[in-house]
Amino acid sequence: HVGARLQQVGAARLGGVATFTAQTTLDVREYRHGLPPNMEADHLDGQAEQASAREIGAALPLRDGVFPRPYSISSLPHR
pLDDT by residue for the chain (79 residues), tens digit each? Predict the structure, then answer.
């Protein structure tokens, strides 16, 4: 599979007394023929407006491997 693993690390000094650090890792994978239907959230029926899909998705709990808004629409050229 084509993809990448991105890792971000950050730190901040808190009041000169302590340092807060955080790390996150994002695995990116390409789906050349679109995201499989079982990986899309149930509320995406293809008819929902962007604003209503965003509102519904924000209220749902996160589930591993299921994307509440898995795509973007762009008029820019892409591969």
Answer: 678 999 999 999 998 899 999 999 988 888 777 777 777 776 666 655 667 777 777 787 887 877 766 555 556 665 5
Instruction: Report the 10 Å Cβ neighbour count for 6.
Output: 10
Burial class (CB in 10 A: 0-12, 13-18, 19+), 49: exposed
Burial class, 30, CB count within 10 angstroms (exposed 0-12 / middle 13-18 / buried 19+): exposed
Q: How many CB atoms lie within 10 A of CB 68?
A: 19
Separation of alpha carbons 6 and 19, rounded Å: 23
Tokens of 58: 């924000």
